[in-house]
Amino acid sequence: MARITKEGLRQRAATAPPRETVMCGEDEYLLQGMTGRQRDRWETSLVVRRGKSREVNTENVRATLLCQCLINDDGTRLLSDGDAEWLGDLSAVDADRLCDVAKRLSGIGEKDIEELGKPSAEAGGSGSPSS
Predict the structure, then answer these.
(1) What CATH number should be reported for the domain whose range is 16-116?
(2) What is the pTM of this model?
(3) pLDDT, tens digit, for every residue of 27-59?
């Protein structure tokens, strides 16, 4: 096993996240896991600050996740963030089935959602990478 190089890491970052096709009834959906940047934005959109505390807003969370992960055949997003409003009316059975796959492809566990509402650790250290 070889240690990754900067160029190897750059190539890995340029590779599309994993994809999976899911059937709900007779409809076929194509989902793709989020990139790190995409997941950070999605998680940030869930956090509501109230003074010094913060809470996780889980309202319509399935729809907002699906807007990030449903894609066209060419890998572009099928939906925009604004589509979450009407997508929230998708049946709970279909939304759960699709979200289970989207979470798995994006590496999201229940623990990750719980962690969003907890206070951040104080930043420490020099900010430079250690060797």
Answers:
(1) 3.30.2220.20
(2) 0.83
(3) 999 999 999 999 999 999 999 988 888 888 999
Segment 74-81 long-range contacts (CB within 8 Å, at least 24 positions apart): 75/16, 75/32, 78/30, 81/45
* Residue appearing with tokens 């798995």: 104
Residue 84 · residue 64 · CB < 8 Å: yes
- Residue 24 forms beta bridges with which residues? 27
Whether the CB-CB separation of 100 and 93 falls below 8 Å is answered with no
Q: Please, what is the Cα angle at 22 between 75 and 20, to 5 degrees? A: 45
| β-bridge partners, 23 | 28
d(CA 35, CA 54): 24
Which secondary structure element, helix H or strand E, spans residue 49, and what is its range? strand 47-50
Going by C-alpha positions, the residue among 35, 40, 41, 42 that lies closest to residue 13 is 35
